[in-house]
Amino acid sequence: MTFERGEVGRIRLHVWPTKRFKTFAVSLYAGIPLDENTVTATALTPFVLRRGTARTPETIAFRERLDEMYGAGFGFDVYKRGDAQIVQFRLDVIHDQFVSSQASLLSAALELLGEVTTDPARDKRGYFLDKYVDAEKNTLQKKLEAIINDKMRYAAERCLEEMCKDEPYRLHPLGQRKDLDALDSASLYAAYRKWLGEACFDLYVVGDTTLEQVQALAAKAFGAGEGQPGRYAFPQLESAGKAPKSIVEEMDVAQGKLNMGLRTHTHYADDDYPAMLMYNGILGGYAHSKLFLNVREKASLAYYAASRLDGHKGLCTIQSGIEFQNYDQASAIIQQQLEAMRQGNLSELEVAQTKAMLTGQLRESQDSAFETIAFDFNTVLSGRNRTAEALIAEIEAVSPSDIVQAASKVELDTIYFLRNRKEAQGGHAKA
């Protein structure tokens, strides 16, 4: 599997010509640096853009266009990778040969996507429609409030916020509730135009087509434009302080949330990234991992215990749910697992199971057009062209000593504990 590359103005093109799928998978990525002054407006923008275009300004008419394309699927995500805020639009449309369509459905899909991003519904003043902005501000506010209500997600975000409090990564990709009130149709449209002029754009198409065909269709849908495609900046891999920061927060919660933030000093583009994948997998990535077995199963101290790696930021985070009074013991056992990794206490079974899980997931991801696209986008973000097949081979070649070497670079930066406010007031279970 090989993506063919090209450009149309400021848009990078990535096309995988294949007859493997009966549909065309289309993804448009638009990324800008995470910034407190723009993060909320950027997050709100795709919510408004999805409501309608200048050609079909009413949402019902917009959805009818998708129905006319034989039920094409349309959606979007807003997330962060490294220190970038990414808006991703997705379209999934059936190939013409499987329906009785006289027109090219890929052409129709790209035309619609071009309208969504460059020619949205506007009022007589040339701004976004007030009714869409007001409705989607409410939608976004509810999504941000849902994070607070989901204490597992809240604790994970607060740990990162404290760990990266002087870095752009502290910002949530959906923005900040406090900034929503100030946004109206005029200010949001101005922010959208600035975003449109500054974002890095990458258009992916997977299906029975060619790079030349996509170039022609994209030029028609988005305009040839001027300028060169933007480049993502690689975030600096920060170091932890001399001693881990300890943050205790009190809320009305029924279960304690103990999270830890680690600095890995390893980026996706680094040669030892496969070893860091193995490190995270053995530490807390799977049901056979050290955290799951030692904290949850053997000591019965946690309802859940896992770790997660962000290779584009060089961070690994640990999440666990515990009883309030078990803080000291759970914290100690978690840190014992970190030390065990540094000391090379790795069994052959742990290594073999983790390799099998990682490589199995990578192979399985190649059965999905959109997951294949998401994997290849790592190349754009990191500057390192790594195929799934190459990463599988690199993982297979990782030795226990490579994992220990990766572990030696990991620093514990932040310990975050969310505990019950009432119990704290009663003087119990001090953290």
UniProtKB/TrEMBL annotation:
Protein name (Swiss-Prot/TrEMBL): Insulinase family protein
All copies of domain Peptidase M16 C-terminal, residue ranges: 184-358
Pfam families (alphabetical): Peptidase_M16_C
Molecular-function GO term, any one: metal ion binding
Species name: Paenibacillus sabuli
